[in-house]
Amino acid sequence: MLNLLRPALIVLFLLPALVVAHGPSRQKVDKQIEINAPVAKVWGIISDFCAIKSWNPAVTACESDKGNEVDSERIVTLENGQKMKEKLIKYSTEQFSYQYMMVEPNVEAFPINTHGASITVKEGDGGKSIVEWKGAFYRSFPGPNPPPELSDEAAGKALSDFYTKGLEQIKKLAE
To answer: 22, 27, 20, 54: which is closest to 110 by C-alpha?
Structure first.
């Protein structure tokens, strides 16, 4: 009987250590804004993969190698001078949507290691539009106890603030 109980006790004692020892988990940011303008007008503002420089105040420059072609890469310069390299994964004028991912992490830009996002314009009530910007990421700190500036919360706040600035500016430009 003791031979059967021993493995169960070992697992029981080691399980908490294994749970605490894991690294970062996937986090999500999902932001939306309602805009008093038709979908076509709003899509016209954001449809170019590198137009982010004109609708997100946190971006000062953007360079793209292939425009809106899938696999196009853009280099986005942030207001703090840091750069992010991103790649266009999907692009649909019919669905007023595109999806992209970060190619090279830059912790000075955002405390994240990976990032994939999509931005979509949907029809709302009464001729209005809804812009949804959602993304998923892993923080840059690989261990279980990150310093505050590299935590899931810090990374989520940084991306959330970035998304919010962009969405609010799209609304100003469209209305």
So the answer is: 27
At 5, is the pLDDT very low, low, confident or very high (cuts 50, 70, 90)? low
d(C-alpha 72, C-alpha 86), whole Å: 8
Per-residue confidence at 24, pLDDT binned at 50, 70, 90?
confident
| Proportion of the chain above pLDDT 90, given as a percent | 84
pLDDT single digits (tens) 78-94: 999 999 999 999 999 99
Structure token digits, residue 133: 């910007």
Q: Which domain holds residue 107?
A: 24-174
Name the residue type at position 41: K
Classify residue 19: in a domain, yes or no.
Answer: no
The CATH number covering residue 100 comes to: 3.30.530.20
In whole angstroms, how large is the CA radius of gyration of the chain?
21
**Domains in the chain, number:** 1
